[in-house]
Every structure is written in C-alpha cells, then in structure tokens.
Amino acid sequence: MAEFSDDHKARSNPFLQRLRRGALLGDGAMGTQLHARGVGFERSFDELNLTQPQLIEEIHRAYISAGAELIETNTFGANRIKLARHGLEAQVRDINFKAVKLAREAREISGEPIFVAGAVGPIGQQLEPIGRITIAKATAAFEEQIAALLEGGADLLVLETFTNLPELLAAVLAARRTSDLPIVAQMTFAEDGLTLSAEEPTQVVQALEQAGVDVIGVNCGVGPQVALQVLESMRPHTALPLSGQPNAGLPARVEGRFFYFATPEYFANFARQAAELGVAYIGGCCGTTPAHIAAMRAALRPDTAAPQTRQPPSHTAVPIDLNPSEPLPRTPFAQRLADRSFVVSVEIDPPRGLNPAKCIAGAQLVKAAGADAVNIGDSPMARVRMSALSLAVMIHRDVGIDTLIHFTSRDKNLMALQAELIGAHALGIRNVIALTGDPPRIGDYPSATGVWDVDSIGLIKILRRLNEGYDWLGTSIGRPATFTIACAVNPSAEDLQREIDRFRQKIDAGADVAMSQPLYDRPTLERFLERTGPLPIPFLLGVLPLQSSRHAEFMHNEVPGITVPQPLRDRMRQAGENGIAEGLQQSRELLEDTKNLVQGVYLMPSFGRYEVVAELIRWLRGQAIAAPTPR
After folding, report:
1. Pick from 321, 348, 70: which is nearest to 217 by CA?
2. Does the domain made of 21-301 have the CATH classification 3.90.226.10?
3. What is the per-residue pLDDT across 581-624, written as a single tens digit (0 to 9) for each?
C-alpha cells in the first residue's frame, strides 16, 4: 500500500533535510559519562534505562544544553545477544522503548527541536564461521531491537561502532525490514585506515550504498585524525552525507578508572576540519563529554546556528485587547467555520521544560503546509507541561497562526477558571476546547488533588456566560466575550449512548464545534451520526496517523476508546518498514471516504512528528475539500 519511495523520504524527512543545510552536531559519549558517575563497566549500561532513568535523562539534557542537535538513546548494547550476558534478554523491548522515552522527555524538557536517534551497536560476539552466531540470528536480534526503538518513537537509527562489515550489513538489512527511518551506518577504523576485518573505506562505502543507507560514516576508533583520514578517503566515492564521531584519543587507565586526554579545544578543531570537508553529521564517541560538544558547537556556530535561531515574525501579531468600543472580530478559526470552509487543526503538546522552540518550529511547519489552527494541550496525561495559554500567546506572536487551547477543569476552582479565561480573551486567545481533564493519579503527581468544581459541560456553560457578558454569578464583565467553544466527543466510546447523551448536553450548554477522538473507519462515524441525528454544529474528525504495526496494536489494545479495525492493523503489519507511509495512506483514504460527513480534521502527530501531518495537510489542501451540506 505504501506510495513513498526512498527519494520521497530524502525530500520529506526532517533529519535528511537538516543535513542539507550544513553540519549537524550530535552528542558525545554516554558510557563515559556513566562511568564518571560511578557506574562500573561490569554493569549493563542499557539496564540503567529501567533502574536509573533520571541519570540517563540528566546526561541527555547535559548534551542538549551543550548544543547537540541530535542525541542517541542509551541502547548501544541493548540487543538480545548482548543483554543475555546480564540475564536481561527478556527485556529487550522494555529497555529500548524506555530509552527512547527518556531521550524524548529530555528533548521535551529542553524544548529544543533536536533529533532522537535510536542507537544500535554490534551483538558483541563473533559471527560464523569464526564464531557461533549466524548472520540470520544476528539479523533477528537487530530486528527485535529496532522494532522497539521504532515503537518508542525514534526519529532515525544510528548503527555504530561496527568492526565487521557483514555484521553491519545485517543490521542495515534489519533496519530496512523493520522501519523506514533514516539509517546512519558507521564503522570503526584502526590506525592503518582499515576496519578490523581489513576493509578499506571505499569498500565500506560501496557496500553501504548498495545496502540502502542514508548516511555513511566512521565512529569510535583511535581519534579525530584517523577519522578525518577515513572521511577524506570516503568523500570522492559517494554523494551520500558523511558522519564522523571519533573517540577522544586512546584511553589511559589511572587508579582503576579510564581517562581520555583529547581536549575540547582539540575537538573544536576537528569539528571545523570535518565541516570544511563537507561532513554532515559531526559528534563524539568514547571519552567525549558535554564540554567537548560545547566546544564543537562554538566552532561550528557560524555555519550551523541559523537553523535554531528564531527569526522575527513576518506577520502582524494579534493585538492585545485593550477594550475597544468596536465589536470584536471573529478569530480566523471561527470565521472559517462560519464560512463552512474545510478546517484543519493540528495538536501541539507544550514542552515539559522552559524552552518552546520545538513547539514553535512545529507550528511554523504546519502553518506553511496549510493548517488553519493549532490545538495546544493542557498538561495532557496529567503530566506537568508549560501552560497552554503561555504557549498559545507565543505561537500567536512568533508564527501568526490561530490557536485553540485545551482548557481543563481539573486544576482550578471556579474563580481561577474564570480569571484565566478572561485573561486569555484579553491576550487574543479566544478559541477554547472545554475538557474535564485526566485525573492526577495517572500522571507525574498521583498525590495531587483534582479540583473539578465543574466538568467539561459546566465549563462550556461558563464560557457561554462569558460570551453573554457575565461571569458565573451574573456579574458583568463589561461586554460580551467572543470565545469559540469547542467540545470533545468519542464516536468509538464503549458506552456510546452515554457518550451521545453527554454530547447533546455539551451542545445544549453552548458548544460551537465538536472535535472527535481519533477514528480509523467510516462505519464507526456513520453509526455515531445515525444515533445523534443531524448536528447543529460543525464536526471535526480526529485523525492520528499510525506509525507502525506495533503502534497500531498499542492504539487498539491499550488506549481506551480507540478502535483500529483489523484490516488496517493487517495492512500495517504487511507494510513492515514502510509503516509511516502506510499510516499516511490510510489517513488519506479515511479523509477521502468521510469528507462528505465532516467539516474539518483535527490532526494529532505521533511522537511530535509534525512533518508527517504536514504531508497530510499538503495533500488535503490539494484536494480542495468542501464542507458537507447540512443533512
């Protein structure tokens, strides 16, 4: 079913696009940082994803703070064969899935639009005929690990520190069978410029190009000089991007600890030389630290700072309401609904930390693709994030796209609810989806107390009262507000009659537009609409493109209220490594099939992959879909 070619991947994948704009800086060593924090080499570093997750996340954040644009998961040895040394072979999925989650959480907390690479190292044993491990067994181990990295939401794969070319090719084959993520394939070269299995750089390039990787490179080894020599040998023989992540020289053992002596300044010089050579992805391996990455960042900054720099907005920002006498205009989102235009909104979750850069970049991307608005979550899953209102104001200011904030009654009493809504209105944020909110017990603070003076229906009534010019107790607020009031509805709810009853209450309370939970087939929508009868308000269909077979099974079996029909799950399984393309194709088919029933779409990107929904938006805008005629 997949329609996307490798050339399409090169055009549309954000990582590959970023490499075209100049050298991208990766992170440094994970093991070195763990050893420096007292973790012995006899331990499984990969197991720490489960037993000491805060330590792993802390190291990721240190590299992001140093200026890395890409961080690798702590999964170098997280394959079944290597984990068996520690009795952990049954935990391959958990270790790899958790590793990606930790890296993504570090990214969210930082707020930077960095890439999360799933790291895959060798199996740690000799292959046949020297050893007992067959190529088939090694390939199966790599497939199992990569499937878990994909399920966790990795943006790309880095296959690194391979000393045996057939083993690396087995890992590449596993990656291509399992996912359609970009593949960075790196080998280790000795002082003589050859791999430990005696391949020359040109042989490695030829084999990896034929295998279908996206980036070819060198990592680990003896240090920057050998890495540069190997990269110089590779450059004339391939048009693919190159990568270089050398060790900080050879280690020395001092009082039972290993130390590397190549300085950050030395690595800054390496970064400059690599960039001049045209190396697209530059980073460090064993012995490199956040200090090395910071020095490399400073050396590369003249050429690479631009992609992360927020440019002044080219639009006119929405003015703050200073209580003019003229009636307030409708928001662009509300106007398009009134015009019966087909509306496209995209969900953006606020960052878990102080930096909104990734969210703003996502808003810029979907706006450029043709979205009408972005939805901003209110600490979804009861996890602490930046306030939806704050991010909405910044996106208004810096991007110029209309925003719709999720607003829950979970965290605020009646006074605070109304105070924040009045403030949001004054700041120009006038599209609100009224939600009850996830209970605190499922999130970061299970002992926190939910307030819930009102539920979502009561919150809609408050918004309607404000639109009439009064607060909940009937006190005038000076003039009527102009909130567009959205409500949520789940056509796949297990107790559909109860869901419909509450939906009707929301409409009666004053909802202006309905936005659905993710749906995956037309019959479910038709059954819902048959039960409700003609709707007096616009209905936006929730669409969450599937990413892989595991993602489809997770959504169907583990997310309450979501049903993914068996034929779609079968198609995702058959798509194999083309899961993202297949998920997009299914979303296109659904939208084509339901366009006469809905007035818009509410797109929800998985794992923050705004480029995937941007592809869908561009397709939608090319279809010139009109809103349905009233039934």
Report:
1. 70
2. no
3. 999 999 999 999 999 999 999 999 988 889 999 999 999 998 76
